């Protein structure tokens, strides 16, 4: 039994916490949630024993077992964590058994004594057992980094390093939680929803205050304990089906089962690497992959689900199908990164032990840059950047008044000792992390408060790992091991600090003194570290194929794989080299600006309209809520959101008593039963190998394997990878000299091998165009970013949809014959360019030969049909058929053809034999034509964007007009019905008040938009122009902004353009064309808005004065665009050769 002194300390500590929180009152909603979770339903007994022998024995046993199993499961996908309800459920019968069978003997020692059985097994002992066992989650985070170091980089560290570095990160996490306890633990409004399931289950099992619960809620009479037992048993039995008997229930993408070989179906409905637009799953481990949806507040789920819809299902889809950053040739979603052949990036080719785990620049340049799938690039990098800046701005705006309180609690001496503990093992292992460790700790210190505030209110964690990678990438460029351990000190310590703070809140709810909590956590930290590292080293040395795609039972190390890909990008290659490559990933840095700006208008709108939905908009969650994606998928987040909103909104609103009584118990029952069943299934079925002998339709249908004749040869879980490896088979099997010959700029000697390589099916040539070192469809960083922004607007969505109808397949042959415009061929004198192109045997043979190399069958068919039509239209001659030049197209003839590059031959010296063009020449011409056609199309699309804008404005006016007419008709009918007393009808005032455009809405519109002047000032002048109302000013300003933005964005330029080699000349020409086309497009609007008999006046009910204002401003915009068009063409003319000569003459 504990001594009286310990009891007094405990009582004082608890009372101190209560007095602190007494100054703050929680909202009624928060109080009801806490009561539903079993908090405050019974009085605290300060004499209850806590640090008993029973608690220590059970806690240590569970800490060893659970930390080991959690570490083992972190190597598997789908991962399964033994969570708090599992520990609580299994610890309860053991504690009660100890209570019943162990004798109550008092064991005396010199200074103190303890009792083998101090009495009934209580909630405080139970909670401390959970807290110690829950440390396995913390150890698992460090295990990911150790796995990455050993399995992916081949650097095996000894036990000393592993133990010391893991303990060091624990201690720094302790420090962070203690420093900021006053702002993240003590405030009563910070509920920490993640612990509510623990408190609910604890009070349910120990029957604490259950009589009050039964009397408080008028719903089912079944007790919480009975409900928990029934659900737990049913869920335990059911989990055998999706995990072992019928795994297709876990990946229930039935459209993929119906048509497994369709790329579109797999991309849209695939759950592994697709979008997962039908998020149906019957597997609780899939639904709760990112956390239990029953414990997450509804407002947080809405923010995360909105992020999924907007960023993944709209923006990412738009970028994917417009091939931003070459992502169209890769899987839509994957945790892997790829090389220029579409294969998984082989880090061993650029980093190895021979180079001391640094980047080998020569081998990197000879191998490939890194290509990322769109969801990986957008979420892991773009949104992570935005989240970092958004967190700083958000916490400054929302919590700036409480941040200063934490500064008073900084324990300087403890912090210094923790830094020493973290530094020593890293220095011993020569990971080359000098005193920059202070920088890693500073990152943790800065970002811990906002991360803790988000976690304490939403039960969702936001990652800052990418920021740590970037900083380490610049400081330790090329050193991957230094990068991952900088990440460990800067990020993982922050996450561990969050979990420690959560345990502090749980201990506060359970009335456990802080000193006893600290002692339990220290012991659990040490024991959990040793157990976890022992299991980790066993697994990495004994599981067959661990951390590879061929691993047994899914032990592919998904979390470590994701960390490895990130460390590869930021550590080996480095952010400087990575963000400056030709792919255009530097555009991702703009997300820093997006994240910094977005919280500001949301903050002021929430303050301006405190009762509106703006109060529920949480910018950090909207930007960073998808932090588990990848390896999580859209299916995981969508199913999680559907279940969470069903319980958090629908059931809580309509069946509030049922929700309050059973919601948190239901979450605990599902988590605990699935955890226990998962462990049992693994140990009895998968680990023993029995699963290999159980195969039927339900275990195989979700695994899609294309037929040998299919373009896609790899097997996935209902997914479509695409990319060159799918088009050409195993490209690595082809000889590398052939690849270099075909892709390199100097491909004049070894075309025979290249011809043999691409001859089967003639399809592998697509790799030459799509993944060569100088890709044909070049996108500058600015162009890629503008495309991304374009998908954020409805106008540009329409633009891209329209652009998909352009004749893509005709461009290849067009690029081929256009290259021969700069080469002269011997032969009979031609009457013109088209006569030579269509009837000169040498040039026609050259066109046929080059098209066979660089174009697919479908592209050749479409391109030559177009070329034949052009020959008849412009050359008045038929195109020579292939048979007419067959002697020049044999395999020997093509092998002996001369390969020429751009401007290698002079037009004054005709060639007397067919020639081939080099790959670089073809790519350059293809880029030039593709850029020109894109610009021509986008000029017209942007011109039509003005029509889309005005259509939206006019449709709003027409809807308002129709609403007014309907209101008038309704009012008239109401008066007639009241006069005739036909039947009771609500008064016209009520009908008017409840109408769409009346009541509060019409009052707000009149006082804020319709009546007032453009600015809060006397007069109607705004920017030198006269307006009637504010709404007219807003409409006109919007059109001005649209016209300006569309005049300057979306230009696709690249160095070396054949038409305009200089980038400045390209911008001048494209700007001149666009301003002219947009100016001309405004003329119909001028005529439409300028007439007094305008039909739109009747349709909208607006006055002629309103349309006259619009007419004048459209005219001004069209005039300025016309002037800009003229000036730009004058500049182009002056920059040209004739302009230069004329200017010289004028100056003389």
Strand proportion, as a percent range, falls in under 5%
Please bin the fraction of helical residues.
Answer: 55-70%
**What global shape is seen?**
globular
**Average pLDDT rating:** 74
Main β-sheet, spatial strand arrangement: 1-2
Largest sheet: 2 strands, antiparallel
> Which structural class is indicated by helix and strand composition?
mainly alpha
The number of helical runs is 50
Q: Count the E strands.
A: 6
Q: What is the radius of gyration computed over CA atoms, rounded to a whole number of angstroms? A: 35 Å
Give the CA-CA distance, first to last residue.
109 Å
Low-pLDDT ranges: 1-26, 410-419, 705-806, 978-999, 1138-1148
Task: Describe the structure in your own words.
- Its main location: membrane.
- InterPro entries: Fe3_Rdtase_TM_dom (IPR013130), Oligpept_transpt (IPR004648), OPT (IPR004813).
- There is one protein chain.
- This protein has 50 helices and 6 strands.
- The radius of gyration is 35 Å and the shape is globular.
- Among the domains are: about 810-925, no CATH class; about 975-1010, no CATH class; about 1020-1148, no CATH class.
- Helix 6 crosses helix 23 (about 560-575).
- With about 1150 residues, it is mainly alpha-helical.
Question: Which key features would you list for this structure?
Answer:
peptide transport, mainly alpha, single chain, OPT, disordered N terminus, transport, two-stranded antiparallel ribbon, 1% strand, protein transport, 63% helix, disordered C terminus, globular, membrane, 1148 residues
Summarize the structure.
By secondary structure, the chain is mostly helical. Helix 11 crosses helix 29 (656-686).
